[in-house]
Structure formats: C-alpha cells, structure tokens
Design goal:
261 residues; single chain; five-stranded mixed sheet; alpha+beta
C-alpha cells in the first residue's frame, strides 16, 4: 500500500489558501514531513521535505507519494512522485481508465470490469535517463497491481480484464518485470528493479494462449513483439470475444484470443 507523505499523518490540504503544519518536530523524527511550502504564480509551487530520521529514505521503495486535496475534498485530486534524476512528475501521464459494464448473451447478464491501460514506453530504459525510466515503469506497474488487488478484495470473483498498451513483453525485460507485477506472475529470477506480489488471484496473460509464432501485436524495425495485451480473471469466452484490441502490425488486424480461464 502506498504511503501518503505527510506531516505526522496530516494531509496536505490546499483549501482557502491555508496550509497547516504540526508543531516543530524533535531533532529526530520517525518519518518524513513537509517543512516548507512555497506558493508562486501559476504552477510555480514547491514543497520542502524534511528527513529527520537519521538515515537515507528511498521514496520509490518506501511507496511514498505526495497527494493534493482541493477544496476540502477527502479524495486526492492530484498525485505526484519524485523519480530518480527528475523533478516532481505525475506517475501516470495516461492514467488507467476503469469501465464497469455487462455482456448480455441471450437472457443472461454477465457483469464485467475492464481497466484500459497505456503505460510508459521502454524508450531510454538503458540510457543516461535509465534510472528514471525504470522507476516510472515500476511505479506505474506497482500502482496498477495494487488497484487490481483492491478490486479483487472488494469483490471476490470479480470478472476482470486489464487491456491495452502495457509497453511490455509477455516476459520480463530484465530491468522491470512489468507484466509479472501487473498479473501477479513475477519471474522467479527477478529483475533489476525488484517487484512485489500484489495480485491474488493472478491474472491470466492471454498472449500465452496463442501459438508462439502468433504472439505479437506490434512490428518494430522488422521485429514482431508483444506490447499490447489482455489479462483476465474469471471471464467467459463469449464475453471476452467482444473485447477486441486493434493490434498494430504491418497491415494486420487481429482480435485478442478468447479467455480460457
């Protein structure tokens, strides 16, 4: 579960221009807290985060984020995160979208929950900006896996599909095991960025139900690969077939395979 970076669990509330802090902390504190907020013109604003724990804190490994609550709303209106080598930036440039609907076959209504995804690309993952790219890809996958697990906990047996451009192969790329993180099927050999098993029960990667020479959704410089995929839990085949992904290949349009789960 992500930890809200706070001043002794107090939320950062930007309501009526008032920002409240607790009393001065002692020389050493148990957690991070906001020590200063700077209000500038337009989007020119800044936070100073004080670390009085006596040791370095890894914001990514610790699951920290900064949430902004507007006009007294208890739900966060904006979440930002500090990635290595970069200034504060959104975790998701294209946040996942949640659809709750139903497949109707004959007289039967089959409820289904669909998460549409478009995650950060592999571009630059092994370059000078690699640490930031890897951190962002992992942070997105971690948040998505925790969201999937929250849906499973709230509704055991939920008919669930996660579909879209994960910008990830069906296997780990060695830097970040994106699909292992999202589906709960982490590669036992691990990756440079260590994943955590969040999803239970695991999702089924429908790419793996296709013949090996058909496992592609994209052709890059003549190399066929899977970047767009579909992952399901407890979904009927006839309902699955209505969920079609337009796979970007050289002149080929294919449907995602039916669920065998």
């Amino acid at each position: 579960m992500h930890r809200r970076l706070s001043a002794l669990s107090a939320q950062l509330c930007l309501a009526a221009g008032v920002l409240m802090f607790p009393a001065h902390a002692a020389a050493q504190s148990a957690d991070l807290f906001f020590s200063e907020y700077i209000e500038g013109t337009s989007n020119n604003k800044a936070l100073e985060i004080f670390n009085g724990t006596g040791t370095s804190v890894d914001l990514l490994a610790g699951g920290y984020n900064v949430q902004m609550h507007f006009n007294g709303n208890p739900a966060a209106g904006l979440t930002i995160f500090t990635f290595p080598g970069a200034t504060d930036a959104p975790r998701n440039d294209r946040p996942p979208l949640l659809l709750r609907g139903a497949y109707v076959g004959g007289d039967a209504v089959f409820p289904i929950t669909v998460i549409a995804v478009h995650q950060r690309s592999l571009s630059g993952i092994d370059g000078a900006d690699g640490a930031r790219v890897r951190a962002k890809r992992y942070a997105q996958a971690l948040q998505l896996s925790q969201f999937i697990d929250s849906l499973q906990d709230a509704e055991p047996g939920v008919h669930l599909v996660a579909i879209g451009n994960f910008n990830a192969f069906e296997f780990t790329d060695g830097y970040v095991d994106v699909m292992g993180q999202v589906t709960g099927n982490l590669d036992p050999l691990g990756a440079l960025v260590t994943g955590t098993d969040e999803v239970d029960p695991n999702l089924t990667n429908q790419t793996l139900s296709e013949p090996a020479d058909e496992r592609y959704s994209f052709v890059f410089d003549g190399t066929a690969q899977t970047l767009d995929s579909l992952h399901a839990q407890n979904v009927r085949a006839e309902a699955m077939m209505t969920l079609q992904s337009i796979c970007r290949t050289k002149g080929t349009v294919r449907t995602c395979p039916a669920s065998r789960n």
